[in-house]
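Sequence in, structure out.
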Amino acid sequence: MSGAVLWWITVSLENLVLDVSELEKGIEATRRELQANRESLVLETFLADAEVQMSRLKVDCKKAQVRSISCYYY
């Protein structure tokens, strides 16, 4: 049973890491769009908010990876 639970946690963590990676690509595409269209206040505001949330999400994702590894060895 614990092996099945560990498998589920691992798969979910892998999905989380992939999702964060995809979100980072989206943020980068938004940055490029903003550079092409400097007069978009809406896009500029969105990007500023999204970058703050993205940095928090990356920190949380890294913590999840570290804690997952420590749980595995426990």
